[in-house]
Amino acid sequence: MPTRNPDIAITPEPVLPERQTLEWHEGDMPYSQEFGDHFYCRKDGRLECGYVFLEGNGLPERWRKSGLFTIGELGFGTGLNFCETWRQWKQTRDHGAKLHFVSFERFAMRADDIDRALSHWREIEPERLALCARWPEDPKGRIDIDFSDGMHLTVICGTAFETLRNTLERFDAWYFDGFAPRRNPDMWSQELMQLAHDKSVDGGTFATYAAAGFVRRNLQAAGFAVERRPGYGNKREMLCGVKSTSGVAD
Is 110 in a helix, a strand, or coil? Predict the structure, then answer.
């Protein structure tokens, strides 16, 4: 049996916590100690969601043309994007249409934290209450919640690359909403963007608040045609685009 060389120090791999350590700023705004970042725009996260993710993907207009529309999201967080999307879905969907919202989340929050974070917005109160009432006490694995208005929520807990690689869904639109690229670069890697591209339908789209150069280049290398647009609030730019064989930016 080989013996360990005492001169070689072995550093154990870091053990990631099952839950993020949250701080609460300004009363109800969650802040992740692990990533050193807020969960959403400090100006107004709900309005940013509508501007970046829905408008950036041509929604709600596009889901009116499809019997089943599937949205993928990297980073469920507080569920803010889901609740705002659901609110707009209920206002604009056609009879018989279905929306599948699939989110990939490494650290699933508990219902009381989701409730606290989303209580800031009265506009999504019905969605918040319905989500928290159905949210599991110990969120892990694959969470599936079927609501009564053609909306189905799936949250897949785990590392984004592994869970996305194993999913069978195909996506019409993507919300790329991880923590800031400089704080969580793995969420914006070319490998992950390539997976998102490959699991998108022809003509599938994406939108993100992030506009860092390496994010744009990774999206292009994956095969997305990338467009830069004015960002929300004090953010100068955002990115959106479509699945393309060229991936050429504007």
Answer: coil
